[in-house]
Specification:
alpha+beta; 2 domains; globular
């Protein structure tokens, strides 16, 4: 029965990737990294086709590819709470345009297209997300990947629509069908806006150690307008958000840092926090921070923007400007991965085990 369930998913996904789809327009903001955060969660597979039904379907469609083809992605539109059927590559265009500025270099846009397509394939193979409305494959928010449609894009881009959409469409078209794999499985293709000069090991921000999400240098990010940030709040706000009581003149002690230079552990009074817990609670740009007490205020300086795991979008753009290809960008930020045709991966791949993830807000 398990193999029957597995095969149903494989045929379902082959339909998406083998049948030609119409490349049409979608959208973007000019702010990189709208979809930046990843949270680990449990998912379930729920399929009703029996092994006998599957075998019959395989025999019937042995010499053709149109019998069980699926040409669209079911996207839950959060504004109107409706499900929109979107052709596969139109969806990829809409995600790339929403997650990375269209003005970024073409090779960076291509790298972003691969992360979007890889994420979708992995999401579909992993199975039904318990956080999804019934009938939807993904949402259009940072819970999965940000997606905007053509009308939204035209409104956002105005007179810049034509040149921006042509660039995003080109990036999707020239990487059509390609995904990033590790050991013949689609990866968890995380990305973020700007690093502090290094990316982060996955287990130093989340719980799971993922072999292709290793800390690497990203020196270009120090030139990013998002590299440095400041946050100031009152002592009362600081105490309330963290549930602590500060001693006079004190703010807390940073006791260790991660491989990528971000805060690992902090002591405040008798309590200990991770850098991520501080970042989430105080809504900081990054978990690489320093802080000081200034009278009745706490002043916090951050470096970088985002969780720091996976591909730096600013770094990708800088690499592209120096002449690097999207393949070289992918190889730099994801350790020991390959770029393959999704259709061939799905034919040979069994149901994925291991970490199952969905994107969540930065």
């Amino acid at each position: 029965m398990i193999r029957g369930m597995m095969a149903v998913v494989l045929i379902f996904m082959m339909g998406i990737l083998v049948v030609p789809v119409i490349l049409v327009t979608a959208f973007s903001s000019d702010s990189p990294g709208n979809n930046l955060e990843v949270t680990m969660q449990e998912n379930e597979q729920q399929f009703g086709q029996t092994e006998m039904e599957l075998e019959e379907g395989n025999n019937e469609d042995a010499n053709r590819q149109d019998g069980m083809s699926i040409e669209s992605v079911s996207v839950f539109r959060s504004n109107n709470e409706m499900i929109e059927e979107v052709p596969l590559e139109e969806y990829i265009i809409g995600v790339v345009a929403s997650e990375m500025p269209a003005s970024y270099e073409m090779e960076a846009l291509k790298a972003q297209a691969l992360t979007a397509r890889t994420y979708l394939v992995r999401q579909m193979i992993d199975g039904n997300d318990l956080n999804l409305p019934e009938g939807a494959d993904v949402t259009d928010t940072v819970m999965h990947q940000v997606y905007k449609n053509d009308d939204e894009l035209k409104e956002t881009w105005g007179n810049d629509y034509e040149w921006k959409i042509s660039r995003v469409r080109k990036a999707a078209l020239e990487t059509e069908g390609q995904i990033i794999t590790y050991e013949e499985e689609p990866i968890t293709a995380t990305f973020f806006s700007t690093s502090n000069g290094y990316t982060e090991n996955s287990e130093e921000y989340w719980e799971n150690e993922i072999p292709y999400l290793r800390s690497v240098e990203s020196p270009w990010d120090k030139d990013s307008p998002r590299y440095e940030g400041d946050r100031q709040m009152t002592v009362n706000e600081f105490e309330q958000e963290l549930g602590v009581q500060l001693a006079d003149g004190e703010v807390g002690k940073i006791i260790s840092r991660t491989t990528g230079g971000r805060v690992a552990k902090v002591e405040i009074g008798e309590q200990t926090f991770s850098g991520r817990e501080i970042r989430d609670a105080l809504e900081l740009d990054s978990s690489d921070f320093d802080w000081e007490r200034n009278g009745d205020n706490v002043v916090i300086q951050t470096r970088g923007w985002g969780h720091g795991v996976g591909m730096s979008q600013y770094g990708a753009d800088s690499m592209a400007k120096s002449g690097k290809t999207y393949r070289e960008i992918i190889d730099h930020y994801y350790h020991n991965v390959h770029i393959e045709e999704a259709s061939s991966v799905l034919v040979n791949n069994e149901m994925l085990d291991g970490d199952q993830v969905s994107f969540a807000n930065e």
